[in-house]
Design a protein that fits this description.
mainly alpha; Glycosyltransferase; two-stranded antiparallel ribbon
């Protein structure tokens, strides 16, 4: 992890912030939290001299009145999929994760949670979410659930229990995922399920339909071993699937040989997403292979016609981009200010890809001298097991 350590420290600024990427030096609350989470994961926070500066920087974004962490430089575009409420909740969740890694807490009460501290309102909110996009709305549920736990896990227990009850009531027994009756790709549902299942582990509740979760997740895997139909993976997509497969082994031996095989293939591809600067990228999509052409129509995806269509479109897009030599880009949470080429290193992708690698190495150890990962003990993104 020497190269990763150097990559992260090279993005540190003396004011307590971290820049997002060598090619996009924007520094904000997002990038700073990502930097902290990277250092925490590789056991380098204890060797970092400026932790107090970083704590002060993160805390400076908390709004005293609402309790939200608000970075005014991260403003979504009009009609953005990730709206202002989403951004506020996401920033608050990341801030509390980073502060927790630094052994600190938010300074002000989470007053914004008051609207969720009513069982009737909580149920109405849950069912009123746009479940045609489980990947998106599951984030909102994760943010609220995590904030309830971080604010006061015991005081807020009945609201946490309510959300878990709602999840149990609405889980699809055929897939193990959540779609609430909507016609959605398994890929989208998988990303949604990831945002829920680690809470079951943290709360010592055995999740339902683990075998179905395994089958559905393995079915999504691309021929390159990762979990994005366009190829080259995606920092989010890959961790989502890898977490689900690793976590399934906590509860069942079902198809464990297939899980291990799938993760071994994924592991090799994850490593290929590391760049020479030591950081990891969202995805490398410039490695066109024969399998990309063969898999345009993948009969294994017939289980869900929406995945069959999504896979075909994604493969066609990759082929076209490679033939025309067009670059592919992505924007973190849809923010124009955080736009990058998919092949360029950034702190978010580095954190998520390292977490994927750490989960695989921890679940199926294969090295004589394994790296000592510092996996999160408190719930949230990157939480493995108590």
């Amino acid at each position: 992890m020497k190269d990763v350590k150097k990559f992260v420290f090279n993005l540190y600024n003396n004011n307590g912030s971290f820049s997002y990427s060598p090619t996009n030096r924007i520094s904000n609350l997002y990038s700073t939290c990502f930097g902290v989470m990277c250092l925490d994961l590789i056991n380098e926070l204890d060797h970092f001299q400026d932790t107090e500066k970083v704590v002060k920087y993160i805390r400076s974004y908390q709004d005293r009145k609402t309790g939200y962490f608000i970075d005014k430089s991260t403003v979504p575009e009009d009609n953005a999929t990730h709206n202002q409420e989403y951004i506020y909740l996401q920033l608050t969740d990341f801030a509390q994760l980073a502060l927790s890694a630094l052994n600190k807490k938010a300074q002000y009460k989470y007053s914004f949670l008051n609207e969720y501290k009513n069982i009737h309102n909580l149920e109405k909110w849950f069912y009123g979410l746009n479940w045609t996009n489980p990947w998106l709305v599951s984030n909102l549920i994760m943010f609220v659930l995590n904030c309830l736990i971080y604010e006061d896990e015991y005081e807020n227990k009945k609201y946490v229990d309510c959300i878990i009850h709602l999840l149990n009531e609405t889980q699809n027994p055929k897939t193990g995922y959540w779609d609430l009756g909507n016609k959605v790709t398994l890929h989208n549902q998988m990303a949604g399920a990831y945002h829920f299942i680690f809470f079951y582990t943290y709360l010592d509740i055995e999740p339902n339909y683990v075998e179905k979760i395994v089958d559905s997740t393995v079915a999504i895997q691309n021929h390159d071993g990762l979990f994005n139909y366009e190829g080259g993976g995606g920092s989010c997509d890959d961790l989502d699937a890898i977490d689900l497969l690793c976590r399934a082994t906590f509860y069942s031996d079902y198809n464990i040989s297939q899980i291990k095989k799938s993760l071994q293939v994924a592991y090799k591809s994850l490593l290929s997403n590391q760049n020479e600067d030591g950081g990891f990228c969202w995805a490398k999509r410039n490695n066109l292979t024969v399998n990309d052409f063969i898999d345009v129509i993948n009969i294994k995806k017939l289980r869900n016609k929406y995945d069959l269509i999504s896979n075909g479109k994604s493969k066609a897009k990759k082929i076209l981009c490679n033939i025309t030599k067009n670059e592919t880009y992505w924007k973190y949470s849809g923010l124009e200010s955080m736009k990058l080429k998919t092949s360029e290193s950034d702190l978010f992708s580095t954190w998520f890809r390292l977490t994927s690698i750490a989960f695989i190495e921890t679940t199926f150890p294969h090295k004589e001298q394994p790296f000592e990962w510092n996996l999160r003990k408190k719930c949230g993104l990157g939480f493995y097991k108590k």
